[in-house]
Amino acid sequence: MGTPEKKTVNVNSAEMRELRDKIRQANLDIAARTAYRDDLVAKVQKRMGDATDLKVDGVLAFTYTPTKSFRWAEFAKAHPEIAETYTITVPKDELDKARLLKEHPTLVAPFQSRQFLVK
Predict the structure, then answer these.
(1) Side-chain half-sphere of 32: how many Cα atoms within 13 Å?
(2) Residue spans per domain, the chain
(3) Rounded Cα–Cα distance for residues 99 and 116 (Å)
(4) pLDDT one-digit tens code per residue, 62-71
């Protein structure tokens, strides 16, 4: 369906193996640091309870305030009967992607997203 041909580069390179290993380790480090940070934040939030501000020695150190965003999907799951009452159908324009790919594969090809993965 107009998918560009897959191209493979094959190298025998200690440098590339080292880069792959470093990226893998960096991903593990990021995950560990994120988990560590999330744990620290959770401890502060628990201590704050429903307060919006926390001061340390009289100096504002943390805030935990509402934003203008809502977790609508979570709300709808918790209150399906109310969500159903307030659910509306809205018209939406959308590209006919299958037809566009079929009729103009070379025109669309430069816009195809790519994903970088470490194997």
Answers:
(1) 6
(2) 14-109
(3) 27
(4) 999 989 999 9
